[in-house]
Specification:
alpha+beta, 2 helices, 9 strands, 145 residues, 9-stranded mixed β-sheet
């Protein structure tokens, strides 16, 4: 399920940006988000998706998010980096399959989806691996209420 962009796709995207064309702000098919590629999180339903070419390519899957006082921020963010086996120093816990999307340390990672986090989006073991394998730096993550 790993994806790559061909040179024609990259050239078309570059040309569209050069001429001021933008991706329409309509929902990606099968998700509540409007990004064309990346990941979508809906906090109110505790669900997450991967999106490819404007359609849900994986999900919805169960997810948990930040507890009161540690809310997962709503907005659109770039994937910043990935760490296969990270460790949370502030919360002293493992963070397998981490995909960071904020500069304050918010990430997708493997964890208990039945309890809330300190802001990260927790996914089950297989789902976190799928997100880790299919999200790349620069792609978008959209978090909606």
């Amino acid at each position: 399920m790993k994806k790559t962009l061909g040179t024609a796709t990259v050239a078309a995207a570059a040309a569209a940006l050069s001429f001021g064309l933008a991706v329409p702000a309509t929902a990606s098919t099968g998700t509540p988000c409007s990004i064309p590629n990346g990941a979508c999180v809906k906090l109110s339903t505790n669900q997450a998706w991967l999106i490819y070419n404007g359609s849900a390519s994986y999900g919805p899957v169960a997810a948990s998010h930040g507890m009161p006082g540690y809310e997962t921020p709503v907005g659109t963010y770039p994937v910043l980096r990935k760490v296969k086996n990270d460790w949370s120093v502030p919360y002293n816990g493992p963070m397998p399959n981490s995909v960071y999307f904020t500069t304050t340390g918010i990430a997708f990672h493997q964890g208990d989806t039945a309890s809330q986090s300190h802001g990260c989006v927790r996914l089950g073991p297989q789902d976190s691996l799928t997100f880790y394998d299919n999200l790349f730096p620069g792609e978008q993550v959209q978090v909606v209420a």
